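Reviewers of the previous submission asked for a worked example of the structure-prediction workflow described in the proposal, so we include one complete record here. The input consisted solely of the amino acid sequence. No template or homolog information was supplied to the procedure at any stage.
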Amino acid sequence: MYQEIVPIIAEDVFAILGDSQSVEILDAASIGLQSSSNGIGNQTKKQYYVRLKRLVDIGLIEKRQSIYKLTSFGSIVYENHLKTMNKIMPNYWQIKSFDILKSRNDFPFEQKEKIINEYVETTGLKGVINTTQLSSFSVANRFDDLIVEVLKVLDNAEKEVYFATRYHDPHISTKVFEKIGKGVTIHILDGNPEQITVESRLAAIIRTPPNRETADLVKKIVKSPRFDLKRLPDLPQSFMVVDGIQVVYDTVNFINPEQFTIAISKYDDAYMAQQFIEYFKLLSKEATTPKILDEMRVHTK
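From that input alone, the workflow returned the following structure tokens.
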């Protein structure tokens, strides 16, 4: 006979973590809880056994040789949620003050980051949280991580995007099309290799569409005044600016200029965003407009 496997959902786990009496049992199980125990704290015997059974059923604790201990899953939940929360809560108001600090315009961006980093390094938060969780930037040194960052920032776009790109990823292309369809203006400076330029990919879809819906969408995008595409084969670096405040940019790998060393995302830096917009416009002076845009837009006039 096979035992029925009951799926565990996050809501069940968080419900337990929100119950102080269940947490008492988890605390006791973290060091070993005798099965002969009749209760913990102010719990009645019934309350104790009901919660104990629930913790076993959900897979947070198990009975080993007459002692209840945390399972591997239980240990992960206990270490990463309960113990971390116990260390964070005494610092709640200090952490809350970071939000006030980040909203002030009379402090330079670098100074804000320095204050936050110094506080984390000199308090009980060191080793508990990563300073990037409190800061307004993120660093990626792998291409897959860069794609995730670009998608995350691009998803926030509501008005206008400046996108200078030397790389192609189908997920980002799909997200760009999606944003144009929602009324976002997209300026693209295409520095991809000749065989995978944005123009060649658009032309291929129009020439041999996978389906009519995709063909109609691409034609609509190409004709849209919200879609601005220019070609610059020798684009020096990739970067993206979203709504004049969020920026993702990479640093060129000098050993292999076609790759990057690290990429940085800044989620709240209007000054840097404006600098990159001006850089985009400067680079655009040397760029050319793809024939596909000229031809289709002239054809519709």
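The first helix runs from residue 10 to 17. We consider this example representative of the routine output the project will generate in years two and three.
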